[in-house]
Amino acid sequence: MAVSYTEATNAGTEFHLADHNLSNTDTSANTLPFSTVKLPHLIDYLHDLQAHPNPLEHNQFYHPTDGFYITESDVILRHIVQDLSSPLHSAAYHRAGPRNRVFFDPSQTRAAIVTCGGLCPGMNTVIRELVVALWDLYGVRQIFGIKSGYRGFYSMEPVELNPKLVHNWHKSGGTALETSRGGFDLQKIVDAIQDRGFNQVYIIGGDGTMRGAVNIFDEICRRKLKISVGGIPKTVDNDVGIIDRSFGFQTAVETALQAISAANVEAESAVNGIGIVKLMGRSTGHIALHATLSSRDVDCCLIPETDFYLEGKGGLFEFLEQQLKDTGHAVLVVAEGAGQNLIPRTDAQKEEKDESGNPVFLDVGGWLKSELKKWWEREHPDELLTVKYIDPTYMIRAVPANATDSLYCTLVAHSAIHGVMAGYTGFVSGPINDSFAYIPLEEVAQAKNGVDVKDHKWAWVRSITNQPDFARK
Amino acid sequence: MAVSYTEATNAGTEFHLADHNLSNTDTSANTLPFSTVKLPHLIDYLHDLQAHPNPLEHNQFYHPTDGFYITESDVILRHIVQDLSSPLHSAAYHRAGPRNRVFFDPSQTRAAIVTCGGLCPGMNTVIRELVVALWDLYGVRQIFGIKSGYRGFYSMEPVELNPKLVHNWHKSGGTALETSRGGFDLQKIVDAIQDRGFNQVYIIGGDGTMRGAVNIFDEICRRKLKISVGGIPKTVDNDVGIIDRSFGFQTAVETALQAISAANVEAESAVNGIGIVKLMGRSTGHIALHATLSSRDVDCCLIPETDFYLEGKGGLFEFLEQQLKDTGHAVLVVAEGAGQNLIPRTDAQKEEKDESGNPVFLDVGGWLKSELKKWWEREHPDELLTVKYIDPTYMIRAVPANATDSLYCTLVAHSAIHGVMAGYTGFVSGPINDSFAYIPLEEVAQAKNGVDVKDHKWAWVRSITNQPDFARK
Amino acid sequence: MAVSYTEATNAGTEFHLADHNLSNTDTSANTLPFSTVKLPHLIDYLHDLQAHPNPLEHNQFYHPTDGFYITESDVILRHIVQDLSSPLHSAAYHRAGPRNRVFFDPSQTRAAIVTCGGLCPGMNTVIRELVVALWDLYGVRQIFGIKSGYRGFYSMEPVELNPKLVHNWHKSGGTALETSRGGFDLQKIVDAIQDRGFNQVYIIGGDGTMRGAVNIFDEICRRKLKISVGGIPKTVDNDVGIIDRSFGFQTAVETALQAISAANVEAESAVNGIGIVKLMGRSTGHIALHATLSSRDVDCCLIPETDFYLEGKGGLFEFLEQQLKDTGHAVLVVAEGAGQNLIPRTDAQKEEKDESGNPVFLDVGGWLKSELKKWWEREHPDELLTVKYIDPTYMIRAVPANATDSLYCTLVAHSAIHGVMAGYTGFVSGPINDSFAYIPLEEVAQAKNGVDVKDHKWAWVRSITNQPDFARK
Amino acid sequence: MAVSYTEATNAGTEFHLADHNLSNTDTSANTLPFSTVKLPHLIDYLHDLQAHPNPLEHNQFYHPTDGFYITESDVILRHIVQDLSSPLHSAAYHRAGPRNRVFFDPSQTRAAIVTCGGLCPGMNTVIRELVVALWDLYGVRQIFGIKSGYRGFYSMEPVELNPKLVHNWHKSGGTALETSRGGFDLQKIVDAIQDRGFNQVYIIGGDGTMRGAVNIFDEICRRKLKISVGGIPKTVDNDVGIIDRSFGFQTAVETALQAISAANVEAESAVNGIGIVKLMGRSTGHIALHATLSSRDVDCCLIPETDFYLEGKGGLFEFLEQQLKDTGHAVLVVAEGAGQNLIPRTDAQKEEKDESGNPVFLDVGGWLKSELKKWWEREHPDELLTVKYIDPTYMIRAVPANATDSLYCTLVAHSAIHGVMAGYTGFVSGPINDSFAYIPLEEVAQAKNGVDVKDHKWAWVRSITNQPDFARK
Q1: Which residue does chain D place closest to A276, by CA atoms?
Q2: If interface means Cβ-Cβ distance under 8 Å, which residues of chain C face chain A?
Q3: Is residue D62 in a domain?
Q4: pTM score, two decimals?
Q5: Are residues D306 and D354 in the same domain?
Q6: What are the tens digits of pLDDT across the range A396-443?
Q7: Which residues bind Mg(2+) (chains A, B, C, D) (predicted)?
Q8: Same domain membership, residue D318 and residue D184
Q9: Are B98 and B69 in contact (CB under 8 A)?
Q10: Helix, strand or coil for residue C418?
Q11: What is the ipTM of this complex?
């Protein structure tokens, strides 16, 4: 069975904090096809920490019943699609939820919340729920927002937050705390956390942010501070691994459909009309894939995980030519990161990096539009062609969360708080097969979530669009 | 391992069709903590049936790759939240998706589609996807819609369907095939199916409909007809068991939020304003629960699975009084089936039954409104009170599916077709832990999906609303 | 004309007609077919009042150009549809907009804003714009909200308002100031206005509210106080006369379409399905009429301005029978006040009055539903009939204003401020033939705006729905 | 003036002036300050044309009452904002609506409908309403859609239309008839109209299209054909003159607000965030202006009708610097045609023309973004700046019409039909001061509708945004 913090305490010296094998598993003791993933805990390095009864015990209106508190033996299995012809094995993660003991005295708790990276629907909802739940459930009264991302820890005054102030934040997209990329300076950040007396740090951000959070967590361990770090994965692209999806993703897909619908209208209303929609997704095509499966309008979906080509047999032009002949119009959905290897790059473009240090992505939609026009003029100089290109990126990521994502935001925020109050640290909360669990920060920071083009979700796309597989022969 | 149809054929005589133990499991052969649920198959009673290669093999544009076809050893685990301190056990269901062999020749296939019961967002999308996928993927050209529910089999002409006709159906709520309750006449229905030469029957409906479908399937088995019956669970209340949720549910929750938001505006804009929203859910409170978790406006959520009371310590009035004192307003969400035991019933009402033969539900929202007014007049005769009551039922169930549900509709329809083409029968397709699987009709017809008020989802609600637990002491 | 300002004018030897006579109703001097409607002004009874240059002169960024200030000779014609075969005559109203002189020193200005009566989309937007424009344009710093309608003047503390506080109010429906009906106590209200030192009072409400505002204005005149009263008509029913329409009306129609669409889906998805939608409109059918013209789904629209009957030749049942025969379904839209004379009333109901003292309206939608069912059972006992009834009232009036209404809210609020600052009083601002004008409060309080069933708007409805004219012969 | 009707009138002894002289432009006989604008009529050049009673007489369900038919003396005044200090004069237009006599026998009527130019919300609604009203009201059974704009008359087969086919067209944006620019060949078009036997031609398009329609009308007059030409102005930019606005405009503004809201969220969520939204409007800034007045988020609105400059005192940079200092963010709305004189043009760009022969517009939004970044790097090299640029054009013009525009589409289509049936030709139908009227095609083809920056609508913008007036000193 998994290592609970009490056993860890008992085990004491064997606990190798230095090499961070927190995600190690221990399945030797039984024959179960699971291994429970260990979760870092303050007591791993602060062995004398005192636990208190959970303040939820004293709520005026409701009374925790049997089963209300989650125990260490409650786990969530990760791999549920099994091929029975192979040996089974699955990781199991600790289930999220309130524990019967906590390691923070609410009156001594000082929480900081920060948002980093790009916008994503639901950020304000997560912040709001962190504030309201810390306040209402656990009675925490010192809650602060860090402005402008990581750099805000050391360069700006924190903003004091309370339920009244954040009451309507969820109605607006974006983040009322503002966000930025970069600005990560480990020592300055941890110094600031320490100086300001924060003992709970909630970090909302993507994979880059989570890698920073791992460093902050490591440094806090090194300094043996009683500060818990809870992460909440934010990635509109859905490229963070292990978790099912991140908040805002369903809203992004919903909003993307508006752009696809517009592209379809433009295409259908023209003679030989082609609509192109570029959707977010630098390394993964999840939004493009889900939008394609949700819409009835997409004829071809291009994602970073599969190559494609334009000319020749089995190529995009051949397919589109057939499509225009059959129905008079076509709609292409293309993920931001698709086809980057096909677009000619100037020397300057080869050098350029974005604010997070990633290579600059070229505009695949604009390139496709121009290639399509050149091709048509070459092949059908006397026929009309209309290509309309829509890039709805900023209109997608700036909307408030829809109902599905709002519920997610509530659960992910409450989960994070329950975990942090219970003394866990260096973890994120997130859904695994639709149940919220705790996952070590380090695992999440390293896991990638690409579209598995050998899997059925991608097969669905191909069966719906009837698009070529670009397996040139 | 699970019984594949070939083994079943080999096993021959042991196959006890009479007692329908199709949901029996077989785990004796190994030590896995799973038992794979057996799925009925045409070959169970038509032992000489010939299989053909899947027509997907011959698609012009794409080529099934390794792993494209699902095998009998691909299963989905049902129970993924585990308490490691107890012995583990989970049912496992066959994964949905194309099989490499099919038991229908598309040119001989004659499919019928019927919708029964109340409206639910996405019905038209499911119909459309059944038609388009049968046509485009498998080359089926004889596809018919049965009008007006079960009675339409024997009392109305079927409507011939094709992709062009259904092209835009998903843009409208409701069902273009029309629907009705009742009208189930087993012999007439199976006679009509036989007379019209249908060999695939797709039935979209709720638990009552699924019980009818089981009977149809049994009768077809009895007559040893080569007719596959595929079910698609439709229940806006989400009261069908085993599957995660049914299509339209997320859309219903999303739309319910509009009503809650309106109730909140009404409440906030009045002196001592109370807004009541009644949401669908006769036996279960899923919509109420999810809407409460998605909204930030609900102060109290009442569902059929828990009792409540109005007067006295720990009662609803006490809670609302406090709420009005603290914030000046309150919002109640109440599921249709909540509090039915509290509402006084006239003798006539005690007798009355609805079209499906269920006891008539009394209007809990109207009753609450009137009780609240009486209470206030009694307790605070000189103070204003405004109670606004919203019943958005028909505005919720009549909208088209949102993106999340649209994707579900696509997958559930394609899954059903792949299963039926592969010769399975007497099953439904539906998601289990987010992956589509096949489940015996009979299991689904009997399973209930209530809100587990001992589980954490309900605890979330209580932690968000801070509402009383009505555990009178 | 009844209002006291005429007497004031008569009395006024000190009144410098040279400056202000343009607002006299005087067309004798010329042959114009217009008569300009006189507007009350503080100087009517405070003859020595000093004017100042408009503070807009000193704006940092822009500079009033020629034509920026509206003069007394700028008017808006009311009657623009003319029958040239009759003698022409039209009232003309003073155009709204900034005047080059004002009668309030911003530093001495103390403004109060109150909302009365039922909810209407845009109330919060109007409040917000009053606050922001008083602050930003004229430099007023003392702005107060009166809570809970008229009774709030004398029974509650005013809330101090500023642009930061109201910044996002327009995103929520309803009124953040809360509202109520009744509570009108003239002396207490004017005493309170005087005691608290308010010298500008902005009153947002319907015809009842405007009749109250006339009394307040009269009493202020009687007391010769330097207090301007500006009204902003609010009526989601659009039953206030003279003005084109009030804010929120377009939003209400837009939202009503959702209910009609749902009713249509319910009707189309059933065998012999009838959908009924009850829309707001006690004395007038504007919302029903506009929604019918905007939708493509309505088969019959019933409004208070025309009688109808159920049975017999040319009756509703005959029409619906034909409709069901032709298309299988029908959608009825019925205004709240339609058919009140047809519904049987119990003695208790004959006595009952609502909070504003009006006779209680019976539920015409529920009555129609029940009559339809009885009729069908009588005439077609063996055929199915489904009647679904939707009352979307609270979901319509609680939404925020759409773009068209938001623009209206901006202009009506700015118009009111410009008028009040210029010393006008006892007036409302509102659009006449799409241009904002000033209208005496008294005129507006008395004018009714019914649907003219002899006019073409109603003829449009009849040509679209093809419904009977209920002109029994 | 090109049109033959004046000559026809002069020539016309057979012309029964008693019936038709009301449409003369003749005010000499009285002292009215109006002149009624004459409308072309088939009888102007086909003097023996027979009139019939209006088929509306024979409707089953309703009976035209007094005042149902519009007479020639019903007019709409155009200028209703008057300066009483100047002499008054206004044009008056014939009111739209059914006439008691028609000049087409429905059984002999053959109508053609064509859409030209770019997309605009509501096109499909107008087409649908034309088809349904011709069919239902007047009993016309030969109704055809011309595909692909003007070129479709002579290069494609017309599509036969009927109410069942077009039933749901209004639910989709764009035009189901497809559209294109160019392809105008007068002789080929009129030959095709004649060859195919069309005698009613409904042309939906913008100012360019209307200029083409004038030529078609002239040529038809020259050939003395009994073919009526009715125009329906379509311009999402609202740049067509005389009429209040064209259909789709309110929808465009509503949809533009989504982009502005997104830009505001992006700006507010960043450190020194600037959001830029480019809105449609090549020669006029109506959409930008209305969106600015409807939103609460715009800090500066730039339109083609006013110049602006970037650097120096009173320039855009100075204003934005102040804005960022005050609030930390800013939102710019810029019409497509604004600042074209400021953007450096390459020689190639100086030559380039679009499909309609207009000079190519450069991307003012992209240029502003790049200039802003250069300026900031120069002035504040160490401070963050985030500029997000949104171009929502295709997402705006491809949506279906909202309620307000849908009503407009109904009225404009019915108006056009009533006019054409009554024998008018060479006219458009459109709203003048909110009442539908008939206007000679030629007038509309020549009239421009710019934003009058001396008028108050523009002053409203400036008072709301507080933006500079760019009146450099």
Answers
A1: D394
A2: 168, 171-172
A3: no
A4: 0.92
A5: yes
A6: 999 999 999 999 999 999 999 999 999 999 999 999 998 999 999 999
A7: 207
A8: no
A9: yes
A10: helix
A11: 0.90
